[in-house]
Amino acid sequence: MSATTPHPHIDVKEFHPRAHEALHNPQIRQNFRKAMDGLMSKRKAAFEGWDLETLRELGANVRLRALANLPDLLEQLEQKLTENGIKVHWALDGDEACRIVRDICVAREAKSVIKGKSMVSEEMELNHFLEGEGIEALESDLGEYIVQLANETPSHIIMPAIHKNTGEISELMHEKTGTDLSHDVEYLTAAARQQLREKFMNADVGVSGVNFAVAETGTLCLVENEGNGRMTTTVPPCHIAVTGIEKVVPNLADVSALLALLTRSATGQHITTYFNMISSPRKADELDGPEEVHLVLVDNGRSVIYQDDELLDTLRCIRCGACMNHCPVYTRVGGHTYGTTYPGPIGKILMPHLIGLDEGRHLPSASSLCGACGEVCPVKIPIPDLLVRLRRESVDGDKLHPAKVRGHGAKRTPLEAAIWKFWSWMHSRPGIYRTGTRFASRFRKLQPARAGAWTDFRTAPKLAGKTLHQQLRERGK
Amino acid sequence: MSARDIILQRLRNRTGGDLVAPASDFSVLERPDWSTEERIERFEKIIESVHGEVHRCTRDNWIDHVAEVLSARKARNLLIPSQHQIGQDLRAHAERDDLPNLLIYDEPIESWQPALFNDVDAGITSTRGGIAETGSLILWPTADEPRLMSLVPPIHIAVLEASQIYTTLYEALDAQNWKAGMPTNALLISGPSKTADIEQTLAYGVHGPKELIVLIIE
Ligand code: SF4
């Protein structure tokens, strides 16, 4: 397996300096705080009147059932899609997926591609690749369009430009597209609509993601509010959908369960404005729609994750973003700090699988383990448990749990290892333990007031004057 | 070996062994058994909460609503289906002063794309039903009512039969037996096109229609 290449202008390993920077940037903190507070309360309201726990249970089971039959379902999907006239391609990694997209473009002599939102294409760095091949790739989701104008990556999987406020966006659009400087969101939106409509009409190929792929009918489902997804998959003469291999579900009924969870968890909507289901290219008597439709199934590390019973849970994710919205760490540092395609809690567990722990060693510890992510996840992914496991593996695991994830041990330091070794040695020897604790409390004045970065924002705990054993003895117990 | 075979083989020879999944119980999706009136009310409430407009009409007066809606907005023209009853009825009233110019989508898009994108003010389509719980319209575009009719013009008018409003998507899928065969494109539309990508501020009509007007025929 070849790993995803880290993004050209962000280094995953620089998590700490970036977190530091973000924490000292009041604008970033304010933009995220405001957005996340709104999203949290909207989600809550959207589930009112629902038996949320039972619905989550169903969501988790639907995803589990799909994963349990994954190879068969992929074959069934391929067969159905092919019968329907959609061409299916398979890619082992992001580079191969990019080449497949390029080859389709070349065969059609395509010069320009218009894109709907797709996290897998971010994973593949498709835009970057196509640019290098002389093919223009333009994002059409307003948030993605803004982020692309700024030459940045998305900072949230649902709301890509959430780190920017209106003033910043206005200046950016003014500078890059010549719109007037204005805080009128309607004006800015209308300007983007005009700019993008031209592009839709002239694009040779439309590229989209997929939210669910239904094996029973050979249907690709897309969830969106703007209509750019419908434009992308209808106006250009050729449509290429890209998706991770885990997105397949057996039946249409499964989609009704996941859709109910996805949109409510993501933005607190009962449903999005558009739910687009595509099952074939334009038929002979039809007057619009693409002549050609392709689906690229991307593995990129997923079949490796699939091998392990625990890590597999990560593949249940329906990319709703709720775990980010509820994460106290994400809310304070924002999505760019992580330096990965997927930020926040899901990124912290998914990315180390994809890029290895040597690259992503800081991710699993960028968490307070408060458990909010696991509690809101609509498909019940035990994110905190996976974080703990990855933390263990980042220092090489233990005898009961030998490490499996690539790059394990990357966070191990000799000093820390020695301290823990001493710790366990002392705790298995009662005499030494007693002398040690008595000694420690006697000389507690000598205890340093600082303990590295840990005490930057916290007070160091103090050793008690007397050990627990002493106190109990004095109380005559 | 091809990428396909490598991927499938890896998935089939999982080191963790066979996976078993608990059965899925869908009963949580079965919502209360609402009456038609309750469904209409819920549909109306939800669509209005997302900036859509609902007119309750009869088979005799729905064209009056179309005329009223479009003249209030000074629409110059309206794209209609040519075969569907809606289109035929409208054409029978083509002489009315309060109706705009009626247009028909009867050529492949390639030959008139700029006109559709720049000059059409409104489009009217039928629907295959609605979903009360989420305020959604079900559309299966056809050769008579192509996909872009409900997407490109700034105003979309949708005609919905009250008797075809289901409670949930789960129920609609089953009642209409979608799994027997899906069309090229099936759609749920639940409001006008919108975005909140600029500082969470809602703006309508970012790519699709700015207005969604639903005529419920009772
Ligand atoms: S991990 Fe769960 S909460 Fe987070 S994006 Fe995925 S499905 Fe949503």
TrEMBL record, chain A:
Spell out the InterPro entries in the cross-references: 4Fe4S_Fe-S-bd, 4Fe4S_Fe_S_CS, FTHF_cligase-like_sf, Helical_ferredxn, LUD_dom, LutB/LldF, LutB_C, NagB/RpiA_transferase-like
Task: Identify the species of origin.
Answer: Marinobacter salinisoli
Instruction: Give start and end of each 4Fe-4S ferredoxin-type domain.
Output: 308-337
Q: Which PANTHER family match?
A: LACTATE UTILIZATION PROTEIN B
Secretion signal span: none
Q: What is this protein called?
A: Iron-sulfur cluster-binding protein
Keywords on record: 4Fe-4S, Electron transport, Iron, Iron-sulfur, Metal-binding, Repeat, Transport
From TrEMBL, chain B:
Where does the record place the LUD domain? 40-217
InterPro entries registered for this protein in UniProt:
FTHF_cligase-like_sf, LUD_dom, NagB/RpiA_transferase-like
Question: By its UniProt entry, which SUPFAM superfamilies does this protein fall under?
Answer: NagB/RpiA/CoA transferase-like
Q: Which Gene3D superfamilies match?
A: NagB/RpiA/CoA transferase-like (3.40.50.10420)
Query: Sorted alphabetically, which Pfam families does this protein's record hold?
Result: LUD_dom (PF02589)
Q: What is this protein called?
A: Lactate utilization protein
What organism is recorded for this protein? Answer: Marinobacter salinisoli
